[in-house]
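Per-record layout

source: Phyllobacterium salinisoli
name: tRNA uridine(34) hydroxylase
length: 305
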Amino acid sequence: MTNAPFTVAALYRFARLSHYEALREPLAQLCCSLGIKGTLLLAVEGINGTVAGSAEAIGKLIARIEAEPALEGLELKYSYASEMPFNRMKVKLKKEIVTMGVPEIDPLKSVGTYVAPKDWNGLISSSDTVVIDTRNDYEVAIGTFQGALDPQTKTFREFPAWFEENREQLEGKKIAMFCTGGIRCEKATAFVKGLGFDEVYHLKGGILKYLEEVAPEESRWDGECFVFDERVSVGHNLREGDTELCRACRYPITAEERLSRFYQEGISCSRCYHQRSDEDRARYAERQRQVRLAEQRGHKRHIGD
């Protein structure tokens, strides 16, 4: 899909970024001037974000970010979108660029061993390797690697407690972790290494890089990969997936789940139908009507609708 009009860049870098606050306005102004939309997070530990724009605009933004000596050598994944996948541009100042809530964890001091996508299948096929999906439950629900453990976390903050609770069954094993773009599992490996585990690995570039580089016929990935933009999911070769977002509960729903009698576009799905009242559904129905009217006038809806 390299002929698609929008280039999507998922990027991050852990770094000593003491002047992160001073970068907010220059980056926001540059993005707005170039027509780039998405989100960038800045913290003393580095930068993280996903943005979209023309290939030329994204190239200029990446060059500006990497002009900062501490941010040179970004971890970058490119994909493409047929429509602008974000509604606005946000540059936020945060305590962490990915929130684990364990202040003493420092990925710049110690992390797991990177494993290239081409070598990932060999590692996770080994009988003494435990494969852990560090993403949240709604992401895992639409796709994961064959045989991977699902911690069933609602947020990344829950991961440390889950690992501690399951520590005994993980002792003596190779620990292989993965996430969407690499940032969560990089921090997770730092945490696990800090607990005294030696053989800790993570997928370099995350699922996105794996889906880009590993041929479908050789893949051990099942399903689609959730992304935090209007595409909702991508599959092999980073093609836009079939998953949609339930606008009532904001959970991803597959094509199969949309066959449920509880699914009504913009109003409910099988996950949330019994958690909402008739009044809620009436409100969602009115919102969906407004969305349809807006679409008829040529305005696109966005992820928060």
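summary: The first helix runs from residue 20 to 34. The chain is about 30% helix and 20% strand.
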